[in-house]
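For reproducibility, we list the full input for the farnesyl diphosphate complex.
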Amino acid sequence: MAAQDKNPTAGAQARGAEASRPLHVAIVMDGNGRWAKRRGLPRSLGHRAGVEALKRTVSAAAEMNIRWLTVYGFSTENWSRPAAEVAELMALPKRYFESDIARLEREGVRVRVVGRRQGLSGELVKLIEDAQARTAHNDAFHLNIAFNYGGQADIVEAARRFAEDVALGRARPEDLNEQTFAGQLSTADSPPPDLIVRPSGEQRLSNFLLWEAAYAELVFQDVLWPDYGAEHLKAALEIFAGRERRYGAVLADDVLAAG
Ligand code: FPP
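The corresponding predicted structure, in tokenized form, follows.
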């Protein structure tokens, strides 16, 4: 990752006019259950349709020159769903990688799965490690799949690692700042998201990228995830382009106007 991508302010400024297009888009893939219910189908078929929407959206994002896409596939809270649904959700990465990993590898996509490995089956962990290894050399497009991921858990684990380093004399409390802390998160290899999209009409983050969302623009769309596609992503990008990003500062024009 280019150094400027790490810092949202420097990144956007250095990219100038390009800043009207997000470098990194993150999506809460929500609404599979409702999509299925409306059709009188089991929820599992909503999740499978969600995988198809993911495929469409990855292609659309790459075509729209987005470089980083992070999608929320399974949260640390999703374990509380009925066992049969959890099993169906656990099968989705396999379904996706079996059909798409060869093409993703060929098309220059680097795949990373962020989140806890603890709790996942050995077979799933191996599948994830293989997908990551197969695409590790790619740099054209970065796809992060948040799976068994929780923003709070990620922050707590980063804090615990730092506390252990201090206890072992490998770090001093004063070494901790926003940059060093962000470097401990599971998303440390990615720039912060510029845009977080949530379809399905719900308007909350649901424990997704809590630290990383500090200066992200949020866009909520009234479409269920299985229906999501290029036109919805394009609409989200248009909303983003109309937003004024100030990162807590004021715009130069406003400074002049204030005298
Ligand atoms: C939330 O919708 C969605 C999920 C918990 C699963 C999201 C997963 C996918 C879309 C496929 C992911 C693919 C991979 C490769 C991991 P919901 O079921 O809570 O919908 P509802 O709010 O309408 O009930």
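The chain has a mean pLDDT of 93. The pocket of farnesyl diphosphate is lined by residues 29-34, 47, 50-51, 54, 73, 78, 89, 92-93, 96, 145, 147, 225 (CB under 6 Å). Both points were considered when choosing residues for closer inspection.
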